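Reviewers asked in the last cycle whether our approach scales beyond single polypeptides. To address this, we selected a multi-component target totalling 608 residues and predicted its structure end to end. The input consisted of the following lines:
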Amino acid sequence: MEDQTQQEQVSPTVRKRVQDSFDSQGLMAHLGARLTHIGPGRVHIVLPARPEVTQQHGYVHAGATSAVADSAGGYAALTLVSEDSDILTVEYKINLLAPAAGDYLEAIGTVLKSGRTLTVCQLEVYGGRGGGERKLVANGQQTLIRVDRPAQ
Amino acid sequence: MEDQTQQEQVSPTVRKRVQDSFDSQGLMAHLGARLTHIGPGRVHIVLPARPEVTQQHGYVHAGATSAVADSAGGYAALTLVSEDSDILTVEYKINLLAPAAGDYLEAIGTVLKSGRTLTVCQLEVYGGRGGGERKLVANGQQTLIRVDRPAQ
Amino acid sequence: MEDQTQQEQVSPTVRKRVQDSFDSQGLMAHLGARLTHIGPGRVHIVLPARPEVTQQHGYVHAGATSAVADSAGGYAALTLVSEDSDILTVEYKINLLAPAAGDYLEAIGTVLKSGRTLTVCQLEVYGGRGGGERKLVANGQQTLIRVDRPAQ
Amino acid sequence: MEDQTQQEQVSPTVRKRVQDSFDSQGLMAHLGARLTHIGPGRVHIVLPARPEVTQQHGYVHAGATSAVADSAGGYAALTLVSEDSDILTVEYKINLLAPAAGDYLEAIGTVLKSGRTLTVCQLEVYGGRGGGERKLVANGQQTLIRVDRPAQ
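The resulting structure, written as structure tokens, was:
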């Protein structure tokens, strides 16, 4: 089921909308994060581990872990709203379950409920290694609000 | 009362411990954040607004806002534990109350309860401008755990 | 300042609206809770300790503590919206800081931010004794949404 | 998978420990809640809808929803710790996704991570009807701490 979900793709229009927004987030580029999957209601972001994103023990900082989790949830929500809408984070809560070790983090945002005004997402962050093992390092829950996109 | 609290200072030993740990967080340097106050149970961190920390509308990204809030709470907790202890974030929840606009963000972590094992902090983030006005842009609550510091 | 805030009262219309809604909550009556202060953006609810609200150690159950905290925040939000609006809880997070001991709990909901659609409240719960001492036993943060009140 | 998990049972000793603790919670009896499944790391609690647990619109109150969710998570954690340990809720966050309508609520607590000191649980609450349909009405995340059980 997991694999099937990951195959599901959004339309080229939605994909472009999400990618363009992601590319305009200075923080994501500065952290070195990249979008790796854009499905309907589900987005993956990968963050390579490097000294620029660490805390005092050399693991990925909870703030960087949260940043990619927050963006993954936000873009998961964005895939399900109309083109004239934008999505803002209202709040989120995240548990850091284990040291964020590994070669990279993979944050997965999944829409639990998409309402007219509010969206609720589940956030998961895995620490992965080249060899393929991965471990859940953070788990969270996020509330987002749909707002009208300002006319360009 | 606020001003008085801000005057209260920790011992030079505690100050050095907090500053050294902060300096070893690659993410804080990479974001451009700096420690501006270290009081007993209360730490301030300032993050200048610049393109490297923005989201898609040019405001500071919720992830960067959270990163400095999380660190401010973590160091506030660290000021109150013994020298052989370290502090890890268990979880936090943060509400983004307003667009994180301004010339800089100031994150304030304040210990609400310091227990033997767990510490609970309040997190506040203000958006400030050169002229001195500031506005609450995020508010959160954080749980941290004391762990034994590994022998060096 | 605390005392002054507690003196501030809402209009009789708002007071009646809040009290009527509270009185229609079966759970509040069943728990034995009562409204003790209705100020603009700030509501207090008192819950007497008795066997019907305990957990396994005889302290007030986290669920009862949360129930009065949630209602206090909800009614604090309700004092600030127009008469044709109702308020629903979107989510909340609560830390149980200490055993909820004492003769009664006092839950205080305070509006941190009142927006057009969303309200964010701080939640505090104190354990009190007849003699007057009280202790913070829980602290939380809550997001609420304004909805149109169904026509009667 | 769901069904298989639900078949898994804990040992009679653990079952008795969980049931005894539940039976000593005055609030659960007062609300009319009952334990319906005790598996390793997974506990279900059912709360019949009745006027004593409602909010102002006649749905189950967020406080009652949270109370059974909190207990379900706490007992799920309790199934995985040694006999001389007890479990206390540190904090939880819950999103109310839909009106808690139906004939009963079913709260499910599932351990996500069981550590030496802390346990993290996922909380789900479904609204169910006699006919068998059910709907997710609340979703949360909870942190718990293991404490030594007081000698009897």
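The mean pLDDT of chain B is 93. We regard this as preliminary and will revisit it once experimental data from Aim 1 are available.
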